Amino acid sequence: MIRIPDIGRFEFRLADGAANPYLLPAAIIAAGLDDIERQIDSSDRSNNNSYVGATTESAPWKH
Fold first, then answer.
1. Closest CA to 24 of 6, 45, 50, 2
2. Residue 12 has what DSSP assignment?
3. Which of 3, 4, 23, 39 has the fewest CB atoms within 10 Å, i.e. the most exposed one?
């Protein structure tokens, strides 16, 4: 999930504290460059909330 609060800035919100602070930005930039190289149109935005309507089912316990 990427959040764009202002022009010229973005926040990558899926990373956590365990992510390598050097490899994560490199991977994000590499993914963006790959999209440009392969001319992938990623203009479709998703503004939905993944938490709303999510259901979880417990696995049946075998005793």
1. 2
2. E
3. 39
pLDDT at 37: 93
Flag whether 9 is in a domain: yes
pLDDT per residue as tens digits for the range 3-35? 667 777 767 777 788 888 889 889 888 988 998
Yes or no: say if 3 and 9 are a contact pair by the CB < 8 Å rule: no
Please state the pTM of the whole predicted model: 0.51
Q: What is the pLDDT of residue 25?
A: 86
Interatomic CA distance for residues 43 and 58, integer angstroms? 36
Number of domains in the chain: 1
Rounded distance between C-alpha atoms, residue 41 and residue 44, angstroms:
8
